Amino acid sequence: MFFFFFQDELSIKPGSVCEVKIGLKQGNKVIVSQVRDGTAWAHDAVPARRRVNRSGRNVIEFDPACAMSPYNVRDLRTLEGMEREAVVAPLRSSYEGSWSEKYVKERGSRNAE
Question: What CATH number did the domain enclosing 27 receive?
Answer without folding.
Answer: 2.30.30.30
